[in-house]
Amino acid sequence: MATAKQAADFLKNARDVYILSHVYPDGDTLGSAFALCRMLQKMGKRAKVLCEHTPSPRYAFLQEGILEEDFSPETVVCVDVADESLLGSRLQSRFGGKIHLCIDHHASNVEYAGLNWIDSRAAATAEMIWELLPLLEVQGDPQIAACIFTGITTDTGCFRYSSTTPRTYRIAADLMEQGAKAGEINRAMFDTKTRSLMEIERRATDSMEFFYEDRCAVMAVTLEMIRLSGAGEDDLEGLPAIPRQVEGVLAGVTLREKKPGEFKISVRAQAPLNAAELCAIYGGGGHDTAGGCSLSGSLQQVREKMLEAVGRHFREKGIL
Ligand SMILES: [Mn+2]
């Protein structure tokens, strides 16, 4: 495993850099990618960000003013991508096995790159990008700071998740001093929703059911609900946080229908539960507080399977 210094030394010598984000890009993968892109361009290098899916318009400010150039990559870097398969099929077939550097904070990272700088203590990959600023001898500026701040605030749920450390706040303070407009970014990320998001939230919360003495909440997001709400992918990313918000719930499970008979399961857990361990029962992974796995079957079958796993995990942790 590489250190921050090794990653920085590699980037100093790198040329013509492609920076890859993960599928259905969130604020951390995009904030990290565009911050790094700006930093490399400031160093006089050619750099661009690639993503399998078009980012939500609410992230448009991250790339404002970035130089767009056409060039072939000499160096390929992944940010916030735990596994090559998370690049999406197009980027994976193009760059799979050819990633030079991976910068990531997922404990589940499989170290697929030539150089892997992984720090699972970081609340966001963007914290690691912040660490690169002095190492690359790049002067921070309001745009870079806004990108990094966005990555951190989105991955910590506006500094609310337990992944948030004293260091997270210190980094955020530094970014504000560099010109990141925290209030504005947080309002855009957390206090603004589309009408279609409101519609899908209404339908999804209506489906919520409680189990195991109300310590597990299960919510469904079906293709039908998505269609009726007019919800897009951006509207769906925040939904898994909802079941865990209910008082007393230790395990919040969201069953999201991806295709008929195929579900992506998101789990949000509170200690002593561990979302990654719970999801590992069905071959998934994640962090202590958030994890995911995939299951096929009808909604009822998938719900039963997940309840079995939750029950088993509850017993392992001495809760039942
Ligand atoms: Mn992240």
What would you say this structure looks like, in words?
The chain is 39% helix and 18% strand. The longest helix is centred in the last third of the chain and has 18 residues, at 299-316. The chain contains twelve helices and eleven strands. The protein has two domains: 4-188, inorganic pyrophosphatase (n-terminal core) (Alpha-Beta Complex), CATH 3.90.1640.10; 195-316, Diaminopimelate Epimerase, Chain A, domain 1, CATH 3.10.310. It has helices spanning 4-13, 27-42, 89-95, 125-135, 142-155, 166-177, 182-190, 195-206, 223-229, 233-236, 275-280, 299-316; strands spanning 17-20, 47-50, 75-79, 101-104, 115-118, 209-211, 216-221, 251-259, 262-269, 285-286, 290-296. The mean pLDDT is 97. β1, α2 (27-42) and β2 (47-50) form a beta-alpha-beta unit. The site of manganese (II) ion (MN) has 6 residues, from loops.
User: For the largest beta sheet, what order do the strands appear in spatially?
Assistant: 6-7-8-9-11-10
Q: Compute the separation of the termini in Å.
A: 39 Å
Order of helices and strands: HEHEEHEEHHHHHEEHHEEHEEH
Structural class: alpha/beta
Using the CA coordinates, give the radius of gyration.
20 Å
